């Protein structure tokens, strides 16, 4: 087997760093891509009302993931171990079809939900695609002894970083639109940014760091020297 075809045959430190960074990006993007109601603790935004009076089973909070929505009440609050909320999904493209029982519980209209969910279908697709590119870049970064594999890994990492940036911007815009639109329907409701947004930010940072390290290997800069291998 040629040296450039062996994993970790050269530039091991850079390779391991890139594998770690791209693995982190892959895991974060994948978790967000299969967020609520598949992975309940991960969600993009939450719409909640401050409860008054005794605890009831009426919904006081909605949490939105890219695959669906779940409603929670004071008697059934959201938690890491709680997957018993009234959920709708998993479904690809669930706008306009959320059961009225969920909307009635928390006092929201279908128009409000459509405003909050606009663009989530695109976000879902980009999350999964970005995770796929990250996984591919992770594999190719094991073979940095080959200059062609280095270039391929760099290209895959750049695509991952760009898609992660796009996803993060879309997630922020969705949350910002919800913050503006929802109070127009009801002053008693508030909007919070979910942990999925910050997970995407982490994937974004990890991806761009991977791009920097791979660029240093590809152009033999930032202290990276040529090795005695044929490329």
TrEMBL record:
Keywords associated with the record: Membrane, Transmembrane, Transmembrane helix
Cellular component annotations (GO), alphabetically ordered: cell division site; growing cell tip; plasma membrane
Pfam families in the cross-refs: SUR7
Residues passing through the membrane, by range: 120-144, 151-177, 197-220
Keyword Transmembrane helix on entry: yes
The keyword Iron-sulfur is annotated on this UniProt entry: no
Cited InterPro entries: pH-response_reg_palI/RIM9, SUR7/Rim9-like_fungi
Protein name, as recorded: Pali-domain-containing protein
């Amino acid at each position: 087997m040629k040296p450039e075809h062996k994993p970790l045959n050269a530039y091991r430190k850079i390779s391991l760093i890139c594998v770690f960074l791209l693995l982190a990006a892959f895991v974060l993007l994948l978790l967000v891509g299969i967020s609520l109601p598949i992975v309940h603790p991960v969600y993009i935004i939450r719409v909640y009302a401050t409860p008054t009076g005794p605890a009831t089973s009426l919904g006081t909070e909605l949490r939105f993931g890219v695959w669906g929505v779940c409603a929670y009440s004071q008697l059934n609050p959201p938690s890491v171990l709680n997957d018993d909320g009234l959920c709708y999904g998993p479904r690809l493209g669930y706008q306009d079809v959320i059961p009225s029982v969920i909307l009635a519980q928390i006092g929201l209209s279908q128009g409000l939900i459509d405003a909050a969910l606009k663009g989530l279908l695109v976000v879902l697709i980009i999350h999964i695609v970005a995770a796929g590119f990250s996984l591919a870049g992770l594999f190719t970064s094991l073979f940095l002894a080959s200059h062609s594999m280095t270039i391929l890994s760099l290209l895959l990492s750049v695509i991952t970083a760009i898609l992660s940036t796009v996803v993060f911007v879309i997630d922020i815009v969705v949350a910002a639109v919800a913050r503006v639109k929802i109070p127009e329907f009801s002053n008693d409701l508030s909007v919070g940014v979910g942990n999925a947004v910050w997970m995407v930010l982490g994937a974004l940072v990890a991806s761009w760091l991977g791009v920097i390290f791979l660029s240093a290997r590809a152009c033999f800069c930032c202290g990276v020297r040529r090795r005695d291998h044929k490329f």
